Amino acid sequence: MAILSNLRTRFAPNLWPRLDSLSGRLIAAAAVWTLLALVAGGLLLSGIFRASVESDFDSRLQFDLDGLIAAAEPDSNGRVSLRERFSDPRFERVYSGWYWQIVPEQPKGDIRISRSLWDKAIRLTDFRMRNGIAWGHGVGPEDTPLRVAARRIEFPITATPQRDDTRSYTFLVAGKMQEVQDEVAGFNTMLFWSFAIFGLGLIAAIFLQVRIGLLPLRRLSSGLARVRDGEASRLEGRFPAEIAPLVRELNSLIAHNAEVVDRARTQVSNLAHSLKTPLSVLASEASAQQGPLAGIVSARVGTMRRQIDHYLARARAAGAADLLGSRAAVKPVLDDLSRTLARIHSGRGLSIAVTCPADLFFRGDRQDLEEMAGNLMDNACKWAETTVQATAVRLPDGELSLCVDDDGPGLEPEERARVGARGERLDESVPGSGFGLAIVRDIAGLYGGSLELAESSSGGLRAILRLPRAA
Q1: Are residues 283 and 340 in the same domain?
Q2: Strand pairing partners for 101?
Q3: How far is Cα of residue 225 from the mean position of the Cα atoms in its chain?
Q4: How far apart, in whole angstroms, are the C-alpha atoms of residue 416 and residue 79?
Q5: b or e along 449-467 (b: 16 or more beta carbons within 10 Å of the residue's beta carbon)?
Q6: Bridge partners of residue 392, in order along the sequence
């Protein structure tokens, strides 16, 4: 029973699984790995896109640099002029972010700059050579960060007799880095929201996949609950190949459990019959004799009968408590007991009333319910003056309560504490074994229930029996 309860708790169909559940762990692990993969993929794509944008930006700078060099025309003294051959609107708008300048090296001369620089010059901060071109960074107008491409070019001087006279210039083209950063930032924003939506979709798909994939386990849990509540005798239905062996083993366990309990109860009945027959013979022989020995034998036989009834009831209840699928309707049992007790006590004119919903079920054996309810109602009838009331109600947390009230003399608190003790009776004037309440308390305890004694509203005794309820 404990194993089945743990299985039911473990696979209870909650909408939002807990982290200590199988579905919660699967969903959490898959979600973590999905997020890590998306973050890693996003960083990789962002890096690749940034490298692509920077490479394209450098290609544009190199194209403009080549165009600037091609547009330069030297004269006989090695001085260069563009003669309007290099015309691009980007380099004409002031502080547009695209600039060029031509710096003479030897001999020193005036620096030629694009109109976009106005009266400023580009200041290099770092560079490195690659394929004859110096690539680096600089600062332009308004301290704008720039990407710079520069190349050193020598022009011959034909106005002098020396044939190897040359004049060197540094041709430089620069572009604003903010364009690269804006393009990368826009891509990263789009990438973030795309991956966020994609990630949420993946997590939702994982959630549905896990929940749907574990549906057979929830069916198994529901089937076990039905077996435990007595609504089914075995697990029914088709299950996946991975779970089918477990279902077969559980069905075998349920059948074996029922077989063992049935065999044990049969043995208990046989034992009761084999013991009660010799005791009946002894009682009959003792009653036919006179003298103190016959009285002693009769008293001991009565004690043995009470002990046998008590412990056989416990043994039978212990087997039934472990039996899966036990289920008994409460109202028919109470109605039958009330009619039987009314006939037994018909000479006293007792009124025995029963209040119980028709859909109330005890999760246990009917015979044990009859034993407990019969002892309580019989005890109430023995002490009642005119009325006995039996009321059964449904309680939360899977329990039911059976209250039996009488209008008899009742018991003091200290007497109520003693009356359930085995074999102890407070009054010998009323017939009975003295084991009734003790048997009720023992059987209820085997089912996880309890028995309490209190004062009835009519002044008599109230017995409150709590038992597990079948759904």
Answers
A1: no
A2: 113, 172
A3: 19
A4: 124
A5: bebebeebebebbbbbbbb
A6: 402
For the record, the structure tokens of 59 come out as: 């290609």
The total of other beta-carbon atoms located within 10 Å of residue 238's CB is: 8
Residues 256 and 346 in one domain: no
pTM of the model: 0.51
| pLDDT tens digits for range 139-160 | 988 888 999 999 988 887 766 6
What's the CATH number where 441 sits? 3.30.565.10
Neighbours of 195 (CB within 10 A): 18
Q: What is the largest CA-CA distance in the chain?
A: 167
The label of the residue with tokens 């990630």 reads 199
- Domain extent, residue 249, equals 245-321
| pLDDT tens column, 400-439 | 999 999 998 888 888 777 765 544 444 444 444 446 788 8
Per-residue pLDDT tens for 441-455? 888 888 888 999 888
